[in-house]
Structure prediction request, 490 residues.
Amino acid sequence: MKRIVFARIVFCVAGIFAGGSALAQGGVDSTVLTFQEAVKIALMNSVTLNTQRNQLELSQAQKNASIAGIGPNVSLNGSATQFNGNSFNQQQGEVINGIRDNISGSINANMNLFSGFGRLNTIRQYAKAFDAQAHFVDRTAQDVINTVSTQYLQVLLDVELIRIARENFEVQKKQLQQIHEYVEVGSRSPVDEYNQDALTKAAELRAVQAEITLTNDMALLTQTLLVDPFDNYAVRKPGWDINKIGSEPTDLEQMLATAKMNRGDYQRAVKNEAAQHYGTMAARSLMMPSLSAFYNYGSGYNYQHDVPDSATNYNSNYVLTNTGPGSYVLNQVTTKTTVVNPDIPRPFSEQFRTNNVYKSYGLQLTIPIFNGLQNRTQTIQQRTLYRNAQLTTKNSEIQLKNDIIRSARNFQGAKKAYQVAVDQLKAASMAIQYETERYNLGVTNLVEYSTANGRYVQAQTDKAQAEYRLLFQKVLLEYSLGTLKVEDLE
Prediction:
């Protein structure tokens, strides 16, 4: 009997150090989802991360637009209009009444030469804003990895707790059967059987509750990964060396310097502060004179409807005709002359390419004097944004320091907790071994045996929790430093 009980206890202890239970390794119909695969799926499907990636594209477009803004604004204009009624025909230089077609086209260019360095500061502003968004995308990716790590850790822990609960349930059932046999032969009181039956049911209840917890945590993980929850997924413990993880450096000054260089949220705050600074300088330029150059080139065509191709001129003259001696008659003689109508619209090529061509170019100076305090208000608004950005940067730095201190101390605490949990499990394992032998010999009662067994189960749970927490300290440390990458998780 002693050998059977001892073998059972050794099996339970060894199970904790195994790579996981059958649930963790996946059944026949399960899709094994490794930690690396889960992270990659999350980085691909994350709504928040993809939203920030889209925002990064917009920031890139705004940066490119600000750079292109230092060049000229060029536009090509054209119009086709028909006038019916009174209108001015520039071909004739007079107002006519009728139907007239007008076609015009032009190319216009305008280039800012000086505006208080507003364009230059705008370029700098959007360049810093793009850098800030790029850092934010990196940090959002690390947020996704950290979230998936936490949830994956919880699922792994749930699987381990189910294994522990099921093993405890099996041990309690066997113990119940053994006590039942003792009661049958009269060596144990029936009360012991009732108490053991209650303990067995409690162990079964904990196993069921552990399964419910696993279901809920797995649902949360699949929601984060945006994968089909109807598929049957199983998790697998990462093959990380816990001894190597336990030797990670935790020098605070070195960690702080690394975090300031790599933390995306801190770098985003710094870049946003710089962007708002340049934005303030660009807003101030609105109150300064601006000088721009312009050039316009265009032409037009006019066509007047119902204008005849030719015109007939009638000239009437009075001729004195001698009708006899001393007799004269005054006769009216009318002559008709047909000539080309001078008002006929000239051909399109002649008008558009030669006659109606115009050019204009020059410089334009604009000095703002008063526009309802709009420029001043915009400058104050931008200055307020800059001051708020300074506060955000300061807050980010304090938060960064707190994260460094917390992660370093939590890491040290996790190492101590793991070592204590290992020692606790060893002691509890020996205690339940001797308490089982004493109970089988009738030296102790069921209460003391149950207490020792409860401590042993709790020691198993504490050890599993401490082990997984220490395993994922690698992720937590690199997350606090801002150096967390998918490649480092392989």
